[in-house]
Amino acid sequence: MPVTERRPSSSSPIDLVHLATQTCGDRALERNVLAMLARQIRLAETQLRLLPSRDRAILAHGLKGTARNVGAFALADAAARLEDGPSNELALTKLIDHMTATRKFASELC
């Protein structure tokens, strides 16, 4: 079962309750984590379409872990789908859509 189905805040790109738990409620740390996430996503957005399948899978794996740690569960699920099928153009497009939404949301909060 995808993680997003188990979360009450699945309509938001980032589960802010999860993020607050991960950062022990430290707002400054939350902003720093969100800024780092936005930077990582921006870099990955520019690279994903250019990488060969094997490297796409590696990048998707790293993005999946980061996303789960900060509570970006829909992004993590989309990254997992691309990791499982790095040549799947639909999975790539959906991942990039989630990346864009998550990056914008994170940027607005930090």
Automatic annotation (TrEMBL):
Domain of life, per lineage: Bacteria
UniProt keyword list: Two-component regulatory system
Record-linked SUPFAM superfamilies: Histidine-containing phosphotransfer domain, HPT domain (SSF47226)
Keyword Nucleotide-binding: no
Pfam families named among the record's database cross-references: Hpt
Domain HPt: 59-92
Matches recorded under InterPro entries: HPT_dom_sf, Sig_transdc_His_kin_Hpt_dom
Protein name: Hpt domain-containing protein
